[in-house]
Amino acid sequence: MNRTNERAPRRGQISVAGVIIGCIGCVIITASSVYTALKMGALPWPTIFTSITALVLLRALGRTSLSEANVTQIIMSAGSMVAGGLAFTIPGIWMLGMGDKAGWVEMLAVALAGTLLGLVCTALIRQRFVEESDLEYPIGTAAAETLMASRAGGATGRKLFGSMAAAGLWCALRDLAGVIPSMLLALPIPGVSFGIYNSPMLLSVGFLVGGAAVAFWFAGGLIANFGIIVGGSTAGLWDVASAQGIVSSLGMGLMMGSGLGVVVHDILPKAARAWRGTRGHRGAAETDAGATSGAGGVTPRDRGVLALFVAAAALLICFGLGLSPIVCIAVVALAFVTTIMSAQSVGQTGIDPMEIFGLIVLLAVAALGETNQVKLLFVAGVVAVACGLAGDVMSDFKTGHILGTSPRAMWIGQAIGALLGTVIAVAVMVALLSAYGPESFGPGKLFVSAQASVVATMVSGIPSVGAFVIGLVGGVALHCLGIPAMMLGLGVYLPFYMTISAALGACVKWAYDRLSARSAGKTGTGTVDNAKETKHDESGIIVASGVLGGESIVGVIIALMSVAGGLFG
């Protein structure tokens, strides 16, 4: 897509209505994403959910442009990855007992620096990674197909917002009124938090992830809780407390090993081939065209704006976070490297291990002599935000490339959503911290914050180094064999009641798919009605996404009410 084509259509793709809808959606999605990431230790991609929502709302206003819906959903979803980058790193500071050194000013500096670096990197690599590479970007492609195939109308809107309302009411009855118990069928097994967490949101996570991934999640939970904790302590190999340390270390190793496996197996080989191809392209006769491609097709004026973004991010890292100029240069440079890795990872697998990329840079900065634990976690936060945003941007660019949306319009939409999401994510983090206190974050706590716990443990010390090394090596090996080590590690690491609840959601997904296939097969010819099957799949995604959003949004509202009660009570 040449530069002329990028500019011409964007006027009809960024509208006042779309920006307003996108900003309202951004506030809601970002707030719920913070809550979901902290509560569940996971952050399902909101792209398809926001795509459907944007299309429903725009069509209600009489607008039918898929590109306008694409840009609107970009604004809505951009803040979620900023939220993920913060939620997966910063709570580690609270777990280390140093929450007084990470207030809203520092969190805002982390989020804003990461956002600016993420926006710059994606502007520079967009053309190479989306238009010229063979990367699939499965989530972006699925979102484009959903927008093209969907006949979103009143029924879709009712499903989406009805499921949100039902889940929100359930959450309010459970957490606010105390009418519904939060845990069902709990059993007193030493060292094992056995039970069913009464959470529609967690059931939705299991439904949306589904299939083999949740099976490995469940297998990890069985190995950790009934193999290592119950089995090992019963056999006298260790006591329950030691077993729990082994389990947490093994889970952390598996998750980090999975992230390293993505880098080693998926990213570096293709990045090397891409680099060799870029060098060969630039050495050819079409020097000017090659230079334009390598720079992502941006104009000299654009480069000036991007340079200002980089300078602003560097100033935030230096003066806002108190890091030295040498460390600042290293963070900025490595942020560009890891955002490219993130874009590659999302393009190949749809997975963005943003906190792992943050850990990589954290360890590099520690090697330069930085020993302050809080500052190291700030570094991880900046990189995680940048990488999360890069993955989101590139996936959204793939959607727009399929639909013919202007890249410039998409980038502007992403910038609006990301900057707004930065403010909202920090505000929600501060509200949750004020409402529940730093002691509510960590394994087995109200907010499990699994990824942040991994980062904090890497900074402060690992309970069982041997188990961590086994998990690290095993995670890399399993990923190279095509086994989802990240999900296995989550099962090992997370409390077992969360694993059971997610598994029940996956069972619901299995039953729903069987019923959908049976219904679609009832045609006059005895063949499967593909259109009907697709409609059933979309309906399931819509309802599950609405349920997830409903509970997480009400959870944030309850936290805000708690803060307000403390201020004015």
Fold and architecture overview:
The chain has 569 residues and is an all-alpha fold. It has one domain (3-181, 241-563). The protein is 77% helix and 2% strand. The protein is built from 22 helices and two strands. It has helices spanning 3-7, 16-40, 47-60, 66-87, 91-95, 104-131, 138-149, 154-175, 200-209, 211-234, 240-282, 287-294, 300-320, 325-349, 354-367, 373-403, 407-436, 450-460, 465-480, 485-493, 496-520, 530-568; strands spanning 183-189, 192-197. Strands 1-2 form a two-stranded antiparallel sheet. α3 packs across α4. The chain starts with a helix and ends with a helix. Mean pLDDT is 81; it is low at 1-8 and 281-296.
Could you name the key traits of this structure?
569 residues, mainly alpha, 2 strands, globular, disordered N terminus
In short:
With 569 residues, the chain is an all-alpha fold. The chain has 22 helices and 2 strands. Helix 4 (66-87) crosses helix 6 and helix 10 (211-234) packs antiparallel against helix 11.
Largest sheet: 2 strands, antiparallel
H/E series: HHHHHHHHEEHHHHHHHHHHHHHH
Radius of gyration: 23 Å
Helix % is: over 70%
Number of strands: 2
Quaternary organisation of the protein chains: single chain
Structural class: mainly alpha
| Strand line-up across the major sheet | 1-2
The coarse silhouette is globular
| Count of individual helical segments | 22
Number of domains: 1
Strand content: under 5%
**N-to-C span:** 58 Å
In round numbers, the mean pLDDT is 81
Poorly predicted sequence stretches spanning 5 or more consecutive residues: 1-8, 281-296
